[in-house]
Amino acid sequence: MSFGYHTLGFGSYPNRGSGSSIAQGLTPSLLTLTGQSQTNANQLGNSNSLNLTNIGGVDYTGNSARIVFHYQKGSSFTGDIQVYDIVVSGTNFNLNSGMGTFQTTIANSSPYTSASFFGVGTNTSGGRWNRDSNGTPSNGTGLTLAGEDYFYAETSNPAANTVGFNFWLRSPVVSLSAASPTLSFKDGRYGAGIGTLNVHLDIQ
Fold first, then answer.
1. What's the pTM value of the predicted model, to 2 decimals?
2. Total structural domains within the chain
3. Looking at residue 191, what is its pLDDT?
């Protein structure tokens, strides 16, 4: 059984020299999550927290940005990763109350700059992020998370036979507060086909 791993993936920041302002656009990955981490659907999700005042040597305080989740699926349809309880700089996106104007791609799009975005729906459409509750529809994938709405990547057709199929999910623009901005969220990674999730900011 593979439990995957959890790393901070900084990389080099584009167009950023010593003392210069932060470039607009997608940052390097701030967090990388790979592989299955739960062994049955009744387990709880994993908690993640990022201090945006110093991550990869960069202080994002005072910027406006979208939170961007980039998921590349694994080898089968059992890769329905879940994210929920998303909080950034005190803004709590309570998915039980709605989608909070999050957007998803509906095709295998890469890079981010060429992707087309649409509002997230409450459904089970393949090849996109959806809002759902009480477990994902495919057998052997997805945590139940009773009473908790979440976003999940539906890895059935048209994504089922494409290893590395790209799913993009992004938040509305938020202000990274002047007082120690943070990003936290939970993830569910139950399924043999779980791939790799990278978390970015899209600086405005």
1. 0.89
2. 1
3. 96
